[in-house]
Design brief:
424 residues; mainly beta; 6-stranded antiparallel sheet; 3 helices; globular
């Protein structure tokens, strides 16, 4: 066996944050380098990397799903960036992409790795078989997977599955994703539990090429010929590894009294920045759950804030946007750009009986939010997916303000518990 050591960040980091893996290979990793050097690969001219040269408008945006390809398209050719601050050289920010594919990379003889980012996979249609150096990850909608930078892999469509798969990918240029600290939630099973994150079992292939190795490095796609498969790891150990997580196992924490909690309470993974409490990227979900707050506006409030929010929909519908926001689509509300529920969701919230809890079903939306502004790509602005009438979703919101309606004096009617301020 030949031994190979992955390490990130460079040693010596604090022990609790050290990521590493020791692999036992059939051939040394250097054998999997490009035989005649890497050359720029312009086969997918849409897969560009931020920062973009055009200005970023401060508007609200929403996009339709990427259509199914009309020709054979594998994962590398099927990737299209929608937003991203970048650049990868700064080791901060990221890029949010969508993919739609109908061909396995095994059919095109390709392998891939990113020297720029950890890659978060969020499928919404069709299963993926992600073959990595550490083993296989079988991924279906409502599950996510992360492949760390530098790990070689291949994205395939499982045999017997349909002819098309689609979803979202986040390239994380910053610190590795981690599960957030629980703070006052305590050492419970709240949010995402570490034991539910699954790493692959070693599974090697001993195949002779030639094959094509595609690499994302410093914002460019490179490719070169390699003589054999790089997925030749017979055994491994460590914590620098691909992994998957089932979003249906997320344990929601929610209010049982009043008001709407900040969506950060639904954070699955976070990429920290150098500023404590300010994320490079948060991956947040809005899963099925019970909503029970009384005398409150239950949907997300109308707001603008320092974080920039790119949203997608994996399954069903989103409670704050029941119309126009569909699985595979996405929306963008950047830093200090106001947004909130559409007119239909607003009217429902203003008339519903909040003394009765409601179960949100048939839904799984997500948000990738960043302290850096998400810049729309040229394709996002000009590629035909943008919904030009998105702003109309707020038409018809009627004012309920009445200057003659004085604030309540008996607060006991507005709280779900005994309230006696005079007796304090």
């Amino acid at each position: 066996f030949f031994f190979f050591f992955f390490c990130s960040p460079p040693p010596p980091p604090p022990r609790h944050s050290n990521r590493w893996a020791w692999t036992y290979r059939i051939a040394p990793s250097v054998v999997h380098s490009a035989k005649n050097g890497f050359k720029l690969n312009d086969a997918n001219k849409l897969w560009v990397t931020p920062p973009f040269s055009h200005p970023t408008p401060p508007d609200q945006f929403r996009w339709d799903p990427l259509p199914s390809p009309n020709k054979p398209t594998d994962f590398i050719d099927g990737m299209v960036p929608i937003v991203g601050p970048g650049p990868p050289a700064a080791q901060a920010g990221g890029s949010c992409l969508v993919y739609s594919i109908n061909k396995s990379m095994s059919e095109t003889g390709r392998y891939f790795y990113s020297g720029d980012s950890d890659m978060l996979f969020i499928p919404h249609k069709g299963r993926l078989l992600i073959k990595t150096e550490m083993g296989d990850i079988d991924l279906e909608p409502l599950e996510i997977a992360v492949v760390p930078r530098g790990i070689k892999f291949q994205v395939n469509l499982p045999e017997g599955e349909g002819t098309n798969a689609a979803g979202y990918v986040c390239e994380n240029f910053g610190a590795h994703f981690v599960i957030p600290d629980l703070g006052p939630i305590g050492s419970s099973t709240g949010l995402a539990n570490p034991r539910h994150f699954l790493a692959p079992e070693a599974k090697y292939e001993e195949k002779k090429g030639p094959f094509e190795l595609v690499c994302k490095f410093q914002g460019n796609l490179w490719h070169g010929e390699i003589p054999k498969s790089p997925l030749d790891v017979v055994a491994w150990y460590g914590n620098y590894t691909p992994y998957k997580y089932d979003l249906r196992l997320f344990n929601c924490i929610n209010t049982v009294t009043f008001d709407h909690p900040d969506p950060s309470i639904y954070t699955v993974l976070t990429s920290p920045s150098a500023v404590p409490g300010l994320a490079n990227i948060d991956f947040v979900i809005f899963p099925p759950r019970w909503v029970a707050m009384e005398n409150s506006f239950r949907p997300p409030w109308y707001h603008k804030n320092i974080m920039s929010e790119w949203m997608g929909l994996i399954h069903g519908s989103y409670d704050a946007k029941p119309q126009g926001f569909v699985p595979g689509g996405s929306s963008l509300h950047n830093c200090m750009t106001p947004h909130g529920p559409d007119a239909q969701a607003f009217e429902k919230a203003m008339t519903e009986d909040t003394t009765k809890p409601e179960r949100y079903k048939n839904t799984m939306a997500f948000m990738l939010e960043s302290a850096l502004a998400w810049a729309p790509s040229q394709f996002a602005l000009k590629g035909g997916l943008m919904q030009p009438d998105y702003m109309k979703c707020w038409d018809g919101i009627n004012s309920h303000f009445d200057k003659n309606n004085a604030p309540p004096t008996d607060l006991s009617k507005h709280y779900p518990f005994e309230f006696n301020p005079k007796g304090r």
